[in-house]
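This follows on from our talk about sequence and fold. Can you supply me with one protein entry, sequence and fold together? Could you add the entry underneath, on a fresh line?
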Amino acid sequence: MMKENFDDTLFASEDEVEVGGDGVSGPAAEGSFSEDSADADSATEDSSVEDDEQGMFEHFRLNVDVGQTPLRIDKYMACHLMDTSRHRVQCAIRNGYVRLGDKVAKANMIVRPGDVIRFVMPYERRGFEVLPEDIPLDIVYEDDDLLVVNKPAGMVVHPGHGHFEGTLVNALAFHLGISQGPDAKDDRMGVLVHRIDMDTSGLLVVAKNDDSQLNLAGQFFRHTIERKYVAVVWGNIKEDEGTITGNIGRDPNDRLRFKVYPDGDKGKHAVTHYRVLERYGYVTVVECRLETGRTHQIRVHMNHIGHPLFNDTRYGGSEIRKGTIYSKYKQFIRNCFEICPRQALHAKTLGFVHPRTGEFIRFDSELPADMRALISKWKAYSSNMPEDEE
């Protein structure tokens, strides 16, 4: 198992939860948390949103009682954190998620009266009943520590807000032989390390144990995961490649939308790199590489530069944004919307360091049939486009 070290940014949070020294006071002792990202509200629409690394962790502070007998930090934390095993605590320590005072903790460190322990853990949400369902999965890779799955468009990643069946987590519960009841310790990220939108297709990595989850979550936080998407966007992007930098935050006029705050006064830092793959007159096929992973990041950033994703209802891509006024063209667009009835976005490439072997591994998936058909249709249209339309 590789040891990961993190800088102070991992421990920076305004939502740090204090756990009482007696092990029962404070909300963290009950396993509750407050979301740093907008996942909960935006899930009303999608029930699954693009991952937000800072929102993947909950932050805790544990104050050691003045009457505490000196004890190893791993034993102390396991005794004072409800629903958290000593093994999970040891995994967190190995991956650099725990600090004793101002030092990164080691499992054999001794806590003493008055000490302060600060630590972060990938979120554990409780309260949903996750029932195994025999839903076919397109598993690209699997070993004892993790699996990589190619999610189809239309599948919700995680149960919640009207989607309690037919989700990826339900399918994983069946595949992995895991049945989680109402008191499940972790049904948001027990196996999931990141998420993508319901109507986005593509690759997701799933952890099968605590060690893998904690290690992979850290890689996402440090932006060392390789993530490349293919998208069809409206308009002819002038530059062959470029970078979009702009904070992303909630749109105050629509709680289900996000927007760019270019002045950086609100939202979270976000960076998307793009490269043009094909130009087909009124649309462009681009590869987007995520440097960060904010909610709806690609959709928001591309809309911000005037090139919303094709058929992205939430961000204006389901209207004719470029082209002619002729009825024949309007019918062509309607046909395209029927061919690809969702935002044209696919998580094509995923690369990361394997938690156990330390080897960097990369996976690639082909475009799904609806996007291939959409691109083929635009390619044929552009090749026959009248000169006065070019």
Observations:
- The helical segments are 39-46, 73-80, 86-94, 168-176, 210-221, 297-304, 327-339, 369-383.
- The chain has a mean pLDDT of 82.
